[in-house]
Design a protein that fits this description.
Elements (H helix, E strand, L loop, with lengths): L7 H13 L5 H8 L3 H6 L3 H11 L7 H6 L2 H71 L6 H13 L4 H44 L2 H21 L1
Helix pairs in contact: 1-4, 4-6, 6-7, 6-8
InterPro entries: F-box-like_dom_sf (IPR036047)
Protein name: F-box domain-containing protein
Keywords: Coiled coil
């Protein structure tokens, strides 16, 4: 006795048990429907789609009378299309949120780069002023010993042009350099962490944008010109 000899009632019961036990999905049922005329007829069995409907969409907002009037397959199709739209909206929302996180992280990185650049310029200016004041301090010390008149005049002019207290200003500049270095180190640490976050957010964005059917369609289009050229040869 072959499988084709089984009565329709038994086949319908087998399919219904498969749908109830999650062994048979709507895609499997659609594939079976085009396998043969008999399976196509059996795939329209209302209890079969009722089982799929109760399994995949347990919460039903329609009334019992409406459910009796509409074929379970049509109900399943309606609910599936509605669920598909909801999933598409959720996917777009996830992509939008991921893009927002990426943009915010990039903006934060730009701000950190600007802050580090400003601190670097500030540290460079402080170092330059510190170097000039060190020259003034050395010139001030050198005035206490004998030197040629030309050298002494140049050093005296350098000391007279300095209008700030050298020692106190040197202490302030050394402190400012330390603060700048600490600030740059802090910015660098935060910048590296933000870069790691950006990599994570970009990976999340790729996962959110990933769509197997669209990607395969795009890759097929990209390969199509090459395939045509190969065919022409």
């Amino acid at each position: 006795m072959s499988a084709s000899d089984l009565p329709d009632e038994l086949w319908a019961r087998i399919l219904e048990l498969g749908a109830t036990s999650s062994a048979l999905g709507f895609r499997d049922l659609c594939c079976l429907a085009i396998a043969s005329r008999r399976l196509g007829r059996l795939s329209l069995h209302p209890p079969l789609w009722s089982a799929l409907l109760a399994r995949d969409f347990p919460s039903s907002s329609s009334s019992q009378q409406q459910q009796e009037e509409i074929h379970p397959k049509s109900q399943y199709k309606t609910k599936f299309e509605r669920h598909k739209l909801q999933m598409a909206k959720a996917r777009r929302r996830a992509v939008f949120e991921a893009e927002s996180r990426v943009l915010a992280c990039k903006k934060r990185l730009v701000e950190l780069e600007q802050s580090m650049r400003k601190e670097g310029e500030r540290m460079k200016a402080a170092a330059q002023e510190l170097e000039n004041l060190e020259r003034v301090r050395r010139a001030s010390v050198a005035l206490n010993v004998w030197q040629p008149q030309v050298v002494r005049g140049r050093q005296k002019q350098m000391v007279q042009q300095c209008t700030v207290p050298v020692d106190s200003r040197l202490r302030d500049l050394n402190m400012e350099l330390k603060v700048c270095k600490q600030q740059i180190a802090t910015y660098t640490n935060v910048y590296n962490k933000e870069k790691e976050k950006l990599n994570e957010y970009e990976e999340s964005l790729k996962r959110a944008k990933y769509h197997p059917l669209q990607d395969s369609h795009t890759s097929a289009i990209a390969k199509e010109p090459h395939a045509k050229r190969k065919k022409l040869k």
